[in-house]
């Protein structure tokens, strides 16, 4: 059974953008999964996707009307990670501030964490 636990901190600006994307992709009833995967120039990278299924061992939280799910495996690395959305003249994008990252790549989507060693790969 999934447990209630806040792992991710979603800002109001990020939640607004996620809701817009849910409408555009016809995923209004989906959850937002935040994950860590191997890859990137620092060894690990972030992933966000819409999902219809919550797994038994997922941590689940609701913020700004969005159900956020994080796997038990990724929760330690993502604990207290803040996801924001910044808009500029050149466009907009999500920013991720992870206090558990030992180092981050210049691309902003790749990082190192002590809890999960990973093999570094060239940035694309």
TrEMBL record:
InterPro entries linked to this entry: ATAP, ATAP_core_dom, FeS_cluster_insertion_CS, HesB-like_dom_sf
Gene3D superfamilies, sorted: HesB-like domain (2.60.300.12)
Domain Core: 8-108
PROSITE patterns xref list: HESB
NCBIfam families: iron-sulfur cluster assembly accessory protein
Protein name per UniProt: Iron-sulfur cluster assembly accessory protein
Species per Swiss-Prot/TrEMBL record: Solibacillus faecavium
Organismal lineage: Bacteria, Bacillati, Bacillota, Bacilli, Bacillales
């Amino acid at each position: 059974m999934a447990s209630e636990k806040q792992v991710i901190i979603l800002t109001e600006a990020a939640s607004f953008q996620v809701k817009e994307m849910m409408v555009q992709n016809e995923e209004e009833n989906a959850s937002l999964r935040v994950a860590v995967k191997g890859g990137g120039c620092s060894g690990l990278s972030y992933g966000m996707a819409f999902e219809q299924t919550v797994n038994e061992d997922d941590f689940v939280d609701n913020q700004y009307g969005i159900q956020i799910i994080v796997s038990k495996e990724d929760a330690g690395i993502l604990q207290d990670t803040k996801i924001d959305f910044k808009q500029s003249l050149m466009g907009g994008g999500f920013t991720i501030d992870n206090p558990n990252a030992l180092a981050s790549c210049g691309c902003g989507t790749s990082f190192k964490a002590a809890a999960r060693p990973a093999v570094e790969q060239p940035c694309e």
